[in-house]
Write a structure and sequence with these properties.
85 residues; alpha+beta; 5-stranded antiparallel beta sheet
């Protein structure tokens, strides 16, 4: 069974997702209700997709999605580099 790749906040305002780029990098995407978009590249050769899914699902359930995302990724030692936004 495939992993979930997108998550919406219960309020419907925030979106988090992850994807593979054309060159095979894993990227995390955030968009708020005002259509502000941020994209980060996940560092490392073999990022843990299970860890990314767990971090995104925990973050999107939080009242403050973006700070929670940073905390959840840090807890799981998932390094990111911002590429858009």
């Amino acid at each position: 069974m495939g992993l979930q790749t997108s998550f919406h906040a219960p309020s419907g305002g925030d979106f988090l997702g992850w994807r593979k780029s054309r060159v095979g990098h894993t990227e995390i995407v955030y968009e708020d209700r005002l259509s502000h978009r941020m994209v980060w590249r996940v560092e490392g050769d073999e990022p843990s997709e299970d860890g990314i899914v767990a971090a995104l699902s925990a973050a999107v359930a939080s009242a403050r999605v973006l700070p929670s995302l940073y905390d959840e990724l840090k807890k799981r030692a998932i390094a990111i580099e911002r590429i858009i936004g």
